[in-house]
Amino acid sequence: MSETDLSVPFRRRAGSALGDKHLQEALTIATTKFIGLRRDAFDEFPEGERLRDLAREIKEATLQHLDRYVEQLIDSVERLGGHVHYATTPEEARRVVLDIAARTGARMAVKSKSMASEEIHLNEALEAAGVIPIETDLGEYIIQLAHERPSHIIAPAIHKTKGQVADLFAKELKRQVAADPEELTRIARVELRQKFLEADLGITGANFAVADTGTVVLVTNEGNGRMVTSLPRVHVAIMGVEKVVPSMTDLMVFLQILAKSATGQKLSVYTTLVRGPRRPGELEGPDEFHLVLLDNGRIRQIAGPLREALYCLRCGACLNVCPVYRQIGGHAYGYTYPGPIGILLTAMLEGPGSVKDLAHASSLCGACVDACPVRIDIPKMLVELRREIDEARIAPWTERLAYGLMEKVLASPTLYRWSKPLARLLQRPFARDGRIRSVPLAFTEWTRTRDLPALAPQTFHERWPTLK
Amino acid sequence: MTTRTEFLSRIRTEVGKTPGLFSARTAPRPSDPRAVSETIKRELAERWPQALERFQLEFERVAGVFHRAASIAVVPQVVAGIARENEVRRLVAWDAPELGADLLDALTARGLEPFAMPPGDLADATERAELRRRVADAELGLTGVDLAIAETGTLVLRSGAGRPRSTSLLPACHIAVFDRTALIETLGQAGVFLELWNRGELEGRIGAVTSFITGPSRTADIELTLTRGVHGPKEVHAIFVDQVIRG
Fold first, then answer.
1. CATH of domain A20-148+196-299
2. Distance, in angstroms, between A427 CA and closest chain B CA?
3. Cβ(B178)–Cβ(B132) below 8 Å
4. What is the pLDDT of residues A52-96, one digit of tens each?
5. How much is the pLDDT for A2?
6. Inter-chain CB proximity A273 and B210 less than 8 Å
7. Is A242 within 8 Å of A310 (Cβ atoms)?
């Protein structure tokens, strides 16, 4: 699957994902596996439910005083000799990183997986400025070689087969490799080890940042997070402001549920706590440490309808259980963050207009709430978004007309009474065996994938007088 | 460019607009982390055999290799065994005081080529680059352990003078040596030590990075096939020493 083209409507993007047999198979295998791993991890961990409640409470408590915690984080980082930068927009965040790269004469940047840097499209900007960005998470490395975007928050290349990866390595790295994950991983290790040792700039995101101590926390399985924060002479961490947690004690609550939710591990292999540049006496570690605090639509949601989406830990659990994500995969969503939470985050970053179709790409079944480590009520916010999109007249006119009429009819007994014979008359040409399978004109799209039950010959309301 | 003042004042304005979704508090922190950490250690002084058993179980579940040695003097023999199995010889180790013992001569006697990290920073970038080449070239990395968490089979290592980060990262095989004084039971207890280390007098003495290591480096990014040693070590060995190392 190639780069998502947003000029293609969502319906068609989803349609082509549904028609991709390989993608369908990969998605089913991956999401089913993740669901099982997560379930087993929590079954073995009776404190899990209590910790999820506690984690949710900590997120809410942090947001209630976010100004204080962010200020504390800034002070802590600066006290350790780090530099803090403030970015309202993606442009500003890119500018900050490019300035650092230019000032330090950086030619190559190694990156550990960071959704925030994807969100601001940092790689293109670095390339344009003559700095070579190297993604070092194996999945991200693969999709960078393929010039694609991640299709899953924690497993970015699940849509690719080992055969495709072998072909890609043959083409891009000029080496013949067997289509064997072990062998492919070995090649990537050798290839990337050299980059870690050569790079001037290490770029990371942050899973958390501890306000009290100025610690940036990175969670990885491969160890690239450690490489990137230890070997280059400059480290830049980019994080959304909502990632701050008050204390180390709070951090441990999240660490106890994050990996279990994401991959079913008790703890990811590496949890790396980084406090500023290297200390006196330390041989290794960067001379400079920079923290870029990113707003990009987050701050206005502190008091906005998407506030709860600011709790998100980016674990990906809601993707795996979502009946829509499991069918269409990450690329069809078209933006950095896929899945149910991705719709909300896209609305947060790009405005509600960007999700006028995506807001409906959910059955509101609530599986995401059950899987979310901090129990984010995603369906509630999706309904709210749909309302907002309708009120802002962003929704298609047919949809607005249909719902507008329905609202009037259902609110007035007279209209409701008169609507029934009218509806029976109108449905006559289309209803077969009690179902309406296709409706002409502007409504074809709606019935293309759905059947409507036909209006009964007698409604309950009409039968009631005889039943009484 | 957005300034600190603008940025913070925007957050403050938004925070002021809403009471929040529900009444909420952050996690209760230990008011005296030193006292709590000492209580944990005191309790573990009795319970450590159970904690060790759990540690071994969890560590092996994440593909760690567990060894037990009667005293630190036996450690070179265990290390030599691991080296022999992997058919390698080049070893880098934390500086002796950080490791708890000087094992270089004993390791050399067993056919290894050990090299100890300097006790502090080096004079210039050339020397640092030279040392990095040596570490990158080494096949074994020998370190101590600050905490061993039983619940998850996790080794916690603080960076600092004489204990660089790369010893446990660049060599394909990481060997960590610890005793019962490093054992704790849960991640929650680890939080108490993090509270302790990152404040007060200790803060200035430790390095910039604390690493939680739970088994060898792994990835499942190609067709969800579990593969070890993608960037970090392919093997992690933990040698538990019965006789307290610094006793």
1. 3.40.50.10420
2. 45
3. no
4. 999 999 999 999 999 999 999 999 999 999 999 999 999 999 999
5. 40
6. yes
7. yes
Q: Would you say residue B247 has pLDDT above 70?
A: no
Residue B201: pLDDT over 90 = no
Residues on chain B touching A189 (C-beta within 8 angstroms): 229-231
Q: Which of B26, B158, B187 would best serve as a mutation to test chain A binding (most A beta carbons within 10 A)?
A: B26
Sequence-distant contacts of B40-48: CB under 8 A, at least 24 apart? B40/B184, B40/B189, B40/B192, B41/B181, B44/B180, B44/B183, B44/B184, B44/B185, B45/B180, B47/B185, B48/B180, B48/B183
Q: Do B25 and A57 lie within an 8 Å CB cutoff?
A: yes
Q: pLDDT at residue A3 above 60?
A: no
Residues of A with Cβ-Cβ distance to B195 under 8 angstroms? 247-249
Among residues B221, B237, B217, the alpha carbon closest in space to that of A196 is found at: B217
Nearest alpha-carbon partner for A23 in A286, A326, A368, A462: A326
> Between chains, do A226 and B232 touch, taking CB under 8 Å as contact?
yes
Same fold, A20-148+196-299 and A305-391: no
Question: Which fold, A305-391?
Answer: Fumarate Reductase Iron-sulfur Protein; Chain B, domain 2 (1.10.1060)
> How far is B36 from chain A, CA to nearest CA, in Å?
13
- When CB atoms are compared, the residue of A213, A227, A263 closest to B231 is A227
